[in-house]
Amino acid sequence: MSLNNPISVSAEIDGQLYTLETGRYAKFANGNVMMSCGDTMILINAIASNDEMDVDFLPLMVDYRERMSASGKIPGGFLKRESRPSTKEILVARLIDRPLRPLFPKSWHYDTQVIAWVMSAQPEIDPENIAATGASAALLISDIPFEGPMSEVRVAKIDGNFKVNPTPEELEIAEIDFSVAGTDESILMVEGESNEISEDDFLEVLDFAHTKIREFNNLQRELLKKVNKEKRAITEKEIPSDIYNAVVNAITDKTRVYVNTVTTKSERQETRNQLRDEAVAVVEEKFADNEEYADKLIAYANSSFSKLEKHLMREMIIKDGKRLDGRSLTDVRPIETEVGLLPRVHGSSLFTRGETQSLTSVTLGTERDEQMIDGLLPTYYTNFYLHYNFPPFSVGETGRYTGAGRREIGHGNLAERALKKLMPSKEEFPYTVRIISDILESNGSSSMATVCAGSMALMHAGVPIKKPVAGIAMGLIKEGDDVAILTDILGDEDFLGDMDFKVAGTKDGITACQMDIKIGGLSVEIMKKALNQAKEGRLHILDKMNETIQTKNEELSKFAPRFTTLQVEKDEIGTVIGSGGDTIRDITKQSNAVININDDGVVTIATNNDDDAQIALNMIKRLLEKPEEGKVYTGKVDSVREGLGAIVEFLPKKKGLVHISEIQWERTETVGDHLEEGQEIQVKLLEATRDGKYRLSIRALLDKPEGFVERPPRPPRDKDDRNKGGNRGGGNRDRRDRRRD
Question: What is the rounded end-to-end Cα distance, in angstroms, of the chain?
Answer without folding.
Answer: 101
